[in-house]
Amino acid sequence: MSIAKTYNPKEAEDKWYSYWMENGFFRSTPDEREPYTIVMPPPNVTGVLHMGHMLNNTIQDVLIRRARMQGKNACWVPGTDHASIATEAKVVALLKEQGIDKKSLTREDFLTHAWEWKEKYGGIILKQLEKLGASCDWERTKFTMDPDLSEAVIDTFIKFYKDGYIYRGVRMVNWDPTGKTALSDEEVIRKEVNQKLYYIRYKIKESDEHLIIATTRPETIMADSAICVNPNDARYAHLKGKTVLIPLVDREIPIIQDEYVEMEFGTGCLKVTPAHDLNDYELGQKHNLPVIDILNDDGTLNDKAQILIGEDRFIARKKIAKLLEEVGQIEKIEDYKSQVGFSERTDAVIEPKLSMQWFCKMEQLAKPALEYVENGTIKLIPEKFFASYKHWMDNVKDWCISRQLWWGQRIPAWYNENNEWVVAKTEAEAIAELEKTGKSTAGIRQEDDVLDTWFSSGLWPMSVFDGVRNPQNAEFNYYYPTNDLVTAPEILFFWVARMIIMGHDYTQKPPFRNVYLTGIVRDKLGRKMSKSLGNSPDPIELMDQYGTDGVRVGMLLSSPAGNDLMFDVSYCEQGRNFANKIWNAFRLVKGWETVDAPATEAQITAATWFENRFNQAVAEIDEHFANYRLSDALMATYKLIWDDFCAWYLELVKPAYQTPIEKETLERVKALFLKVLTLAHPFMPFLTEELWHDDIFGERDAKDCIIVAQFPEKAPFDEQLIKEFTSVQQIISEVRSVRNNKGISPKVALPLAINVSDIDFTKYQDSIIKLANISELTFVQEKITGALSFLAGKSECYVKLAADNIDVEAERERITNEINYLKGFLVSVDKKLSNERFVQNAKPEIVANEKNKKADAEAKIKILEESLSSL
After folding, report:
1. Could you give the dihedral angle defined by the CA atoms of residues 346, 121, 447 and 345, in that order, rounded to the nearest 10 degrees?
2. CA-closest candidate to residue 790, choices 765, 817, 767
3. Is residue 66 exposed (0-12), middle (13-18) or buried (19+ Cβ within 10 Å)?
4. CA-based nearest residue to 403, from 87, 47, 46
5. For residue 748, with 0-12 CB atoms within 10 Å meaning exposed, 13-18 middle and 19 or more buried, which class applies?
6. What pLDDT is recorded for position 861?
7. Residue 164 Cα to chain centre, angstroms
């Protein structure tokens, strides 16, 4: 094919993604190869692609593409999560726009609307991931409410119930008034909030005395059951057995004593509101206090409040504060900062609420999940997250698994007319169970609540392969445990821990071996990207503007595992420039005419150097991948291609203008270009596939694609050769710098002399002459005076300029500055080597490296001082 002057990403992306799909390159079925399996963290079915998804899925695609090229059976399972709270909220809002109230619908009617919504909008994000180049096995796409996955969830609930882990009871839970559902502790986000602290006066009955109580929630005073003081607090000893009157409603409540109250905190008096605070509830249980719940499920005041009935809790707070001021029962109001819980899903302020819910006992289940990480069976990357994981697992609380929603897997519990219940998979099984125990089967009905979404997604690595319902099936035994999980740290407990718990309970195996925790994508001001802040670019627009490969490179250039990515559009521009660099290099090579002749010695030397440099880079890149340093792996690839291949190798072998290149050299260039493309493919799949198929490489059959080409394997390399060539590069760069500093045209050839020390530069002389534009290259044993000098390794080099081109004083200043720098460097090295602790504890190779640095610095200082004396 003919190659265009400029690269057209859109054309290449559409063409090759369709080609990969049509030819089944993403498809995986069990065979004799080593499997490499990733399950996609299923994005919410409500979702559209955002920058976090971009980062997460780019990382997964890089890993899966590399594994595929390494000859492994790469299987990346995609899917979406039904996201009970978020999806139900979306459907309720849509119905409201149509004038339909959820309360007016039956459960079945509402679910019909919900499924219609899911079918219309639920696949958007997966189509967007295709544009990103995600090489998922789309035939395996799963949804957490698919019939088979839902059945696995119900089976797991029943199993856990029979195993004694699931129970039902009234407990204080986190209530989301917007979602109108209970939440688990992990779904509550604590935020520091500026509030008001109200000091309220409670009148002691039959006395002129008052107690001062400080609270941030005056709207709950109508739910007070007692005032509590410390029994050792002398200030209040005389009030034992007394009662107070709640302001505004004049309800009488007792003064109780308990050491729970800290005498030094606030006024030393605590209002006890068992229905609206977890600690107050426990205190109320201890002292047998009544529980008075004054809030409706939506956060408005109910009849038990006696006043402001129907008002929202926050409006009621302001109104009650005003009423208290009007009757003189506010002592003072102060500004106050405190931690407040917010719903992770709706961002509503959480209300502690007593509620009948279903719970899962976690203490025993959590132990193996902690052991897997402690003993290294599962690796958290980076390791810094282990401490928080361990803290959570050591202090795990029972998990509230029921949600007061209709969208989700309905809990398989059944009630009779007497509210007696059994757990069973079907109504028929429930009736049989009730009959077996002699209980009525009249009025039988199923539990209205659904299970927490994380309960179903906790089964994801197993259920996508039908491993819960059919644990002996061939696919499950082949693909499970999976290899790498790529996810966000904020769901380490929501999801990762629960997958480990459920995976172990079913299989006695971990569900994956490595958990790569990505950072948060932030803007350059450090703010988390979000639609509400308006600081998040549209990923689709970015890909349209900079090309998908450019955006993938931009995302990965600065995204070390677990560390936040300070994203700037300039990174995508850098990625696009990199794609253009590769494209232009290819245009250069494709434009060369050939002559049937062998390669020159200089061309052979250049190719030998690059092959060794390539092998060195492959070793570096392999190590980066082994340690999940994908950003470093990309940067090593970037430097190899941009600097070593384009800026050095191609320039070294490039023929003079309008002259042909030796055929042998061109064939070697093409072979090396292909190797470079295979190294870049996981990061830049579209550009590399486009170039792979150019007719310069000859005919290819349908399956001969770079997506399944061999990824470069580690091979030996000559470190001495690479070191020598580094000195050659330094000579060329220094001569170019001399021209630049002196305002001499690059076309003017300059004489160069090298006082050879540790390297035989004769085999590189043609390369030096060509790239540095040298008129005469000589090798000398003595120093040359009256010339500009510089060091290349341990060799001193001299550029002889016309007298009027040399500024002796400027040259003296330059050498003096370099000597001073090296002496300062020498001091720091000496300080390190004189530190006995460092010498004894550091690895021998590190100490040896420091000694080499010292010797090199001393040698350079000596040469520079001699040069200075000759001026």
Report:
1. -10
2. 817
3. buried
4. 87
5. exposed
6. 79
7. 36
- Using one digit for the tens of pLDDT, what is the confidence trace for 375-397? 999 999 999 999 999 999 999 99
CB within 8 Å of 186: residues ≥ 6 apart: 344, 493, 494
Percentage, residues of the chain above pLDDT 90: 74
Mean pLDDT of 561-582: 88
pLDDT beyond 60 at 667: yes
Token duo for residue 680:
């870049």
pTM exceeding the 0.90 threshold for the entire prediction: no
Between these two residues, 479 and 338, which has the higher pLDDT value? 479
Question: What tokens were used for 195?
Answer: 């509030």
What is the four-CA torsion angle of 366, 371, 373, 378, rounded to 10 degrees? Answer: -100
Distance, CA of 411 to CA of 358 (rounded, Å): 9
Structure tokens at 818: 């370099």
d(CA 399, CA 363): 10
CB atoms within 10 A of CB 393: 21
Q: Which helix (H) or strand (E) holds 332?
A: strand 330-343
- Amino acid identity, position 704: D
Are β-strands 484-487 and 514-517 bridged in parallel, bridged antiparallel, or unpaired?
parallel
Spell out the residues 6+ positions from residue 756 whose beta carbon is closer than 8 angstroms to its own.
Answer: 779, 780, 781, 795
* Contact partners, residue 209, CB within 8 Å, separation at least 6: 203
- The rounded distance, in Å, linking the Cα atoms of 547 and 690 is 13
In this structure, what token pair is assigned to residue 485?
């999980």
- At position 383, the amino acid (one-letter code) is E
Which conformational region is residue 390 in: left (phi greater than 0), alpha (psi within -120 to 50 degrees), or beta? Answer: alpha
pLDDT tens readout for residues 69-105: 999 999 999 999 999 988 998 899 899 999 999 989 9
Please say whether the dihedral angle defined by the alpha carbons of residues 157, 160, 162 and 166, taken in this order, is positive or negative: negative
Q: Please state, in angstroms and rounded to a whole number, the distance separating the CA atoms of residues 755 and 732.
A: 15
| Separation CA 57–CA 51 (nearest Å) | 10
Q: Cα 397 to chain center, whole Å?
A: 26
C-alpha 815/C-alpha 74 separation (Å) is 57
pLDDT attached to residue 133 = 97
**Tokens, residue 177:** 């008034």
Secondary structure of residue 195 in the 3-state scheme: strand
Which band of pLDDT confidence, cut at 50, 70 and 90, is reported for residue 407? very high
For 707, the token pair is: 């997506």
* Whether pLDDT at 761 is above 80: yes
Domain annotation for the chain: domains and CATH numbers: 181-351 (3.90.740.10), 539-717 (1.10.730.10), 744-870 (no CATH)
What are 91-99's contacts with CB under 8 Å, separation 24+?
A: 91/117, 91/407
Q: How far apart are CA 228 and CA 604, in angstroms?
A: 89
Strand bridging mode 188-204 / 142-143: unpaired
Look up residue 85 and give its two tokens: 């709270």
Q: Which helix (H) or strand (E) holds 484?
A: strand 484-487
Residue 280 is classified by DSSP as: H
Confidence of residue 871 (pLDDT cuts 50, 70, 90): low
Which residues are 336's β-sheet partners? 195
- Tell me the C-alpha distance between 219 and 313, whole Å: 7
Amino acid at 683: F
Question: Cβ neighbours of residue 570 under 8 Å, at least 6 residues apart?
Answer: none
Give me the phi and psi of 743, to 5 degrees please.
70, 30
Cα–Cα distance for residue pair 832/858, rounded to 1 Å: 16
